[in-house]
Amino acid sequence: MKVRMSCAGLQNLLQRLSFSVKHYSKHNHLQTVCFYSKLKPKKCHILDCSGSMFTHWTVPPGTILPWRFFSCKQEGTKIPSKRKQDTSIATSELLYKNLLKLEQENWNVISARYNAMTKRIKEKLEELHKYVFCSGSPRIRFGQNVYFEENGCIFLSKADDADEGNVDILFSTKDLGFSDAFIQRIRISPDQRYMAISLKSENSEEATCVVMKLGHFPIMEEVIPSVFSFEWATNDVLYYTSQKNLKCQNVFMTTFTDQKHTKLVYTEQDARFFVDIYCTKDRRFLTINSNSKTTSEVWLVDCRHPFKLPALVQARTKGVIYHVEHRNDELYILTTYGEPAEYKLMKTPVASSGMENWQLVYALEKKTKLVDLEMFSDHCIMFLKNAGHLYLDVISFISHSVQSIKLPTWACEFELESHPEHTTSTCYFQLTSPVHPPKRFAYSFKENNLIEQAVQEVPIIMNCHTTRLLAKSKDETLVPITVFHNTNSKELHRKPLLVHVYGAYGIDLNMSFKEEKLMLIEEGWILAYCHVRGGGELGLSWHKDGCQHNKLKGLHDLKACIMLLHELGFSQPKYTALVAASAGGVLAGALCNTDPELTRAMALQAPFVDVLNTMMKTHLPLTIEEQEEWGNPLADEKCMEYIKSYCPYQNIKPQCYPSVFITAYENDQRIPLAGVLRYVQKLRKAALDHASRTSKEGNWIPNIILDIQENGSHCDSSWEDSLNEVARRLAFLNKELEEVCHLEHHSKSCK
């Protein structure tokens, strides 16, 4: 279902409020977070170092991005007696263990057939990884100093002088006893005397904050367990949020003066709300952001007086989301307040911050997605997406003008770099696509131009063509598709097609660079990304039109996209595979039930496939919060029937299914393994029942495989584990489509 991103900020806010899961990058590189840019990376993980309002991610071979998660129990729920509970739990645990053992034994037998191809794919991906990321990680420029992370170490160098002989090591996970953790987030104090770092292991949802005192010999000052977000209010005052049972509702302040002390400063009483901390770009305020999926409330901490009580900006109003920046005694507010209910930039004096005083500064055009936003002293840059194309809107607070700048047509994602100093005259960011490694760009406010920075090219000869299509859905809505293929490919109707879908929580399909996508293009595959309703590609209305009682629209969109691809000559059903992760499993699994003939194979990662049973169990941690996405079947019989109409698990029936490969995690707290086991068992039985009823020459039984990972979780896996997962998944898809070719060849030979 849904996961939380491990960083604060606007992208955090927007993505956390309006969606749930996507892919999580897992490279050992410093990842920056900008005012709005996950979302949902790291040692193959997310590294949030900028304190911006958004967060963006580059993704390694296929992992899942983490989002928000709450644990609540509905009042009035009838609780069985303890004896019945104990008996039921014991029976369930025994069944679970037996199923788990059977699936592990089954995988041990089946996996041998994929070993050779898995090995080849791994070697190719490892080679690509060396070239793509040999240029090092993004950097935090702080005055004349540059901070950057590589291989679990944090380094300091002088600006533009990061030669190996001129860097200092400030922190090492191995040397300080954190060898099993990855660096997730970095915050430098204003005077650069302290550095706060969050560390997270692959099998835990909670992070540890380590505070280092910098100097000639950096020393570890303090270790704070179970921390989610943190920011420096002053040189020696740190605010942080504590995380317990995947909930974040308390804010603490701790000092590093001669008389150290820690104090609770804020507690959120509503379990639907999640709290994080953000520092405005000019370092004037810390904001305590309390957000549900649809509503926000922000409190200000004055960094000049960090011991004063926080001040409320605007009391929470149902349906109004907002996030705050500051400039020249005015608050700049990104909000859904007013019509239309899309994001808009407004401002108000700090002294009169209520929404009745908010004045419009900038509004998005229709069907435009706000991807990111970065504030500077005299400018604001909006990173936007419209009809699949990326562009910038540069707002001048001096001339009160807006300039639009188009970006290269191949670009699909922004990756912002850190800008701790809001007075800088240049904004740095990277552009990428699934098959284009990140390229660095700089926008100069003084020169008013965009400059592409010199980068080391990947030594691969590849001509990739990008096509953008519109498929007409069942209700005539036009649904965007982005297609990539090798320009040297002939007979595209005979090439393998890999279709990607998500369609939930207002999250865009992740289209950052991944080595495996580049490899597939090089080997002749066609890649298609279906931007169906329920996602966020065309703004908030696109999400609203695909959630709750509109969920079936996303399914209709997906079907229309695949059919259009085939009609236009991009492959055909027997060469088509469908991939999805987490909540994307709802639409993928639903299509598998309603139109199994459209694809030959399907690969799912930690899929959410039992919507109805999950939403009926209020004791589960995600159920109550998820009602805003899926509806409440306990309170609404029509909602129950509607969910039942598309739920993948509920609609399995004897028919000819495509082959299915599912990756699941023993430590997944968001998609429990037991539910995935039940789905696999039921799907396998239905496929076998169909085969037994329709036995005839040439009839085939689909391979339904569950690959259970002992390491990793819904949010995190090491680079090595992620590499193995992707290699096995692609080996499976290659084998399935090879089998089609083999059967066709055999059939022609017989004739």
Automatic annotation (TrEMBL):
Enzyme Commission number(s) of this protein: 3.4.21.-
Swiss-Prot/TrEMBL keywords: Cytoplasm, Hydrolase, Protease, Serine protease
GO MF, one example: serine-type endopeptidase activity
Subcellular location: Cytoplasm, Cytosol
Keyword Cytoplasm tagged: yes
Any one cellular-component term (Gene Ontology): Golgi apparatus
Task performed by this protein: Serine peptidase whose precise substrate specificity remains unclear. Does not cleave peptides after a arginine or lysine residue. Regulates trans-Golgi network morphology and sorting by regulating the membrane binding of the AP-1 complex. May play a role in the regulation of synaptic vesicle exocytosis.
Record's protein name: Prolyl endopeptidase
Organism: Falco tinnunculus
